[in-house]
């Protein structure tokens, strides 16, 4: 049986025999500035120490060995104000151990997250104050990390809690600031508590969950923060953290976090699954156009899909899929303009900057797949994808302003992604949040997860009751959409039989 003992603000005496995994020094920071305004006067500022202290992990005693001979493991938990304070090797080692190589998730990497910070997308000024959690052992080896942000709004999360904020406001309470554990602007499922594969892995997970809750509670007890306005003039805010949210975690984490007192929430996305189409297309002599097998497996939607594909050649458009060094600066400049056109047309907020796309291309290399449409020599549209261990992640789309190319969106975002996934032997295409129109293109509903820890017991109870009703509706809609999906009856069993022969 594992025993977790806590020793707050205790220094480790003596020198331990250390074996470095990929050691790096991480500085502990204190929060003394926040970034939202207040209409109320506030008490004098207090500096809030977000160091979370030291922990000792003690394992069970093996047979034949006395308890005194069993070595304990001392770890410390702290918070840093930027991912740049953690080495890429250390962060990525935690991320890769958390997913495994086969489920590698590019959005959890240091390259992706640092691109957001360095390009001023996920920073204090945009309402995303980085407060990443770091766990180290006594030898300065990093054993775990958590992407964490202190937020003054609910934008860019894709798990919607604006109504919760309204409810707080109507009762005279504040919902913001809150803590958000997530990948900014990215509705992609994956582990959120990233831990190295060690013999203490499960215990480190428990410590990190406890530390996250304590971080929220500690900030809530401390009622005063110093902030800076947009004009950099000092101001004061009397405020508390309302909550801690972990969005798009893995299902395994979702279940574990329930045991830690988190409320559970589910949502729905639309994913395409590769039912061994490459092998089946070859057997049926469909040539290199493996997408044909996807369409053969579908009923009423097949003709519409073929019509969409045919429109591309009629409009004299050329589709290309670019990776790594094939993506030049001009492509990123054009794609940024396409992205801004999309946000402008949808009255959205352009969360991402031009610099972000250039950073992304530089840091992520061949993990980036950019689908572009050309009319002659001119780029007219594009769709951004990232390549994971077994999944192609579709993220953003855009086209030239004041241009209209019928069905190009479906071709660039869905059919090109399917074709690329088959060629790369990937199991899944995730096409982002929302969109029932994806069903007739072979993208079927899947469940997504989030966890919520609210400090106020009364609001917690009310939201818990709401989530029970919401989850019932989400499960019902998911079931109905599967039953009315475009795939022919029995096609999955046929595919499975073919795959076995």
Automatic annotation (TrEMBL):
<dbReference type="InterPro" id="IPR016181">
    <property type="entry name" value="Acyl_CoA_acyltransferase"/>
</dbReference>
<dbReference type="InterPro" id="IPR007434">
    <property type="entry name" value="FemAB-like"/>
</dbReference>
<protein>
    <recommendedName>
        <fullName>Acyl-CoA N-acyltransferase</fullName>
    </recommendedName>
</protein>
<dbReference type="Pfam" id="PF04339">
    <property type="entry name" value="FemAB_like"/>
</dbReference>
């Amino acid at each position: 049986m594992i025993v977790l003992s806590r020793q707050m603000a205790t220094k480790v005496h003596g020198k331990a025999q250390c074996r470095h995994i990929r050691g790096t020094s991480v500085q502990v920071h204190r929060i003394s500035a926040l970034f939202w305004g207040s209409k109320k006067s506030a008490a004098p500022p207090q500096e809030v120490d977000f160091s979370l202290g030291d922990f000792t992990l003690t394992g069970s005693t093996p047979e034949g060995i006395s308890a005194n001979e069993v070595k304990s493991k001392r770890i410390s938990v702290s918070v840093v104000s930027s991912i740049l304070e953690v080495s890429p090797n250390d962060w990525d080692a935690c991320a890769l151990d958390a997913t495994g190589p086969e489920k590698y998730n590019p959005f959890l990497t240091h390259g992706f997250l640092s691109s957001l910070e360095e390009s001023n997308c996920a920073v204090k000024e945009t309402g995303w104050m980085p407060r990443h959690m770091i766990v180290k052992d006594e030898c300065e080896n990093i054993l775990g990390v958590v992407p964490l942000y202190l937020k003054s709004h609910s934008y860019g999360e894709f798990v919607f809690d604006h109504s919760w904020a309204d409810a707080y406001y109507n009762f005279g309470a504040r919902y913001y600031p809150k803590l958000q554990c997530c990948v900014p602007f990215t509705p992609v499922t994956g582990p959120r508590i990233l831990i190295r594969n060690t013999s203490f892995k499960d215990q480190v997970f428990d410590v990190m969950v406890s530390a996250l809750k304590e971080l929220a509670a500690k900030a809530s007890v401390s009622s005063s923060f110093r902030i800076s306005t947009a004009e950099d003039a000092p101001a004061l805010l009397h405020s508390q953290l309302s909550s801690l949210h972990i969005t798009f975690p893995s299902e395994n984490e979702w279940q574990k976090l329930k045991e830690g007192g988190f409320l559970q929430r589910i949502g729905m996305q639309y994913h395409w699954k590769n039912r061994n189409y490459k092998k089946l297309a070859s057997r049926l002599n469909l040539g290199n156009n493996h997408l044909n097998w996807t369409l053969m497996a579908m009923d009423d939607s097949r003709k519409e899909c073929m019509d969409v594909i045919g429109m591309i050649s009629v409009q004299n458009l050329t589709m290309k899929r670019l990776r790594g060094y094939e993506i030049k600066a001009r492509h990123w400049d054009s794609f940024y303009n396409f992205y801004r056109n999309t946000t402008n047309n949808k009255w959205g907020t352009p969360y991402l900057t031009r610099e972000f796309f250039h950073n992304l291309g530089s840091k992520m290399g061949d993990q980036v797949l950019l689908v572009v449409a050309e009319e002659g020599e001119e780029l007219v549209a594009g769709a951004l994808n990232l390549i994971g261990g077994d999944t192609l992640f579709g993220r953003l789309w855009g086209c030239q302003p004041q241009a209209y190319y019928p069905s190009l969106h479906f071709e660039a975002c869905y059919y090109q992604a399917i074709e690329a996934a088959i060629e790369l032997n990937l199991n899944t295409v995730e096409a982002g949040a929302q969109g029932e129109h994806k069903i007739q293109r072979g993208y079927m509903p899947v469940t997504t997860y989030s966890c919520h820890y609210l400090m106020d017991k009364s609001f917690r109870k009310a939201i818990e009751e709401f989530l029970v009703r919401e989850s019932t509706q989400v499960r019902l809609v998911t079931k109905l959409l599967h039953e009315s999906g475009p795939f022919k009856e029995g096609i999955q069993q046929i595919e499975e039989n073919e795959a076995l022969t």
